[in-house]
Amino acid sequence: MDLQLHSSTGRVWHIHGASAGAEGVALLEGADGLWEAPIKSVWMQGAFQEGATYVGFRTEPLDVILPIGIRGETYAEWAHADSLFRNDLGDPDSEFSLVAISESGQRELKLRLTDTPVNVRTTDPGEDHYTRLVVQARAGWPRWVGEAEASGFTSTNGNSSGFVTVTNPTDTWLYPLWVCDAPGKWSLPDFSWRDDQWHDRVITTPTLGSGEALTIDTYPANESYVSANGSNIAGRFGGVEFLFPIPPHTPPTQVPVKVSGGQAGASVMVRMTRNWRRPRGGDSS
After folding, report:
1. pTM of the predicted model as reported, rounded to 2 decimal places
2. Coil, strand, or helix at residue 53?
3. Could you tell me the superkingdom of the organism this chain comes from (predicted)?
4. CATH number for the domain whose boundaries are 149-276
């Protein structure tokens, strides 16, 4: 696996793998935390209950420790790489990324410093042109993000139905993002993916006016409904929310969509961002 560090300026440092150290910077032994975010189970216990009742679990932020070596053939070469790399890490207000490239494809983890990078050498690094740096950073979104996939449907007239294809090859739940043309009213699937009363749940949007193209983000922590012209589209949903993500390891599956009161050529697109627990693997059920 190749591992690159991408700065907020767009500069790339090859720190692990075939090209490690190409810019004078390499990942050393002792890296920790980057493989998978910790999870913590949540339990409920009554005042006089024997034992406890399992409620669920949450995923903690991913805290990463990166031991870094910076070397140069000359003092000037070392000093330039040392200064440039430190500048690229920035401060907690700016992000940098780890990008993993393997047989599993390319995945990215966004990080911010949690502490000042520490030079752990006890002698002057300028004397032998070598810095040993310990970088501590946190991924608030504790997932390795891969390439997104999209599928769309275009209507033949103002009242039309068809299918889009959804899929989730990852080892975590996937919350799709929908983009609907306006004008018109769209019916979109919110299936539970279980054999229950919600297995074929459908949500119908309010009638969208001209210029009111709608973006629906089904991730619970994000704003659900945003219209292109800034209208209060969320209030017109009457409190109805999308509830169900696409389960891990869901094969390509066609799901129905429908538009009414629209125009010929109206389209809807579903965008599926792939989030992985680890920098590689995880695609086997």
Report:
1. 0.91
2. strand
3. Bacteria
4. 2.60.120.860
Q: Is 65 exposed, middle or buried (0-12, 13-18, 19+ CB in 10 A)?
A: middle
Determine the topology of domain 2-36+62-145 in CATH: Elongation Factor Tu (Ef-tu); domain 3 (2.40.30)
Q: CA nearest 96: which of 85, 106, 105?
A: 85
Q: Tens of pLDDT along the chain (285 residues)?
A: 999 999 988 999 999 999 999 999 999 999 999 999 999 999 999 999 999 999 999 999 999 999 999 999 999 999 999 999 999 999 999 999 999 999 999 999 999 999 999 999 888 988 899 999 999 999 999 999 999 999 999 999 989 999 999 999 999 999 999 999 999 999 999 999 999 999 999 999 999 999 999 999 999 999 999 999 999 999 999 999 999 999 999 999 999 999 999 999 999 999 999 999 999 999 875
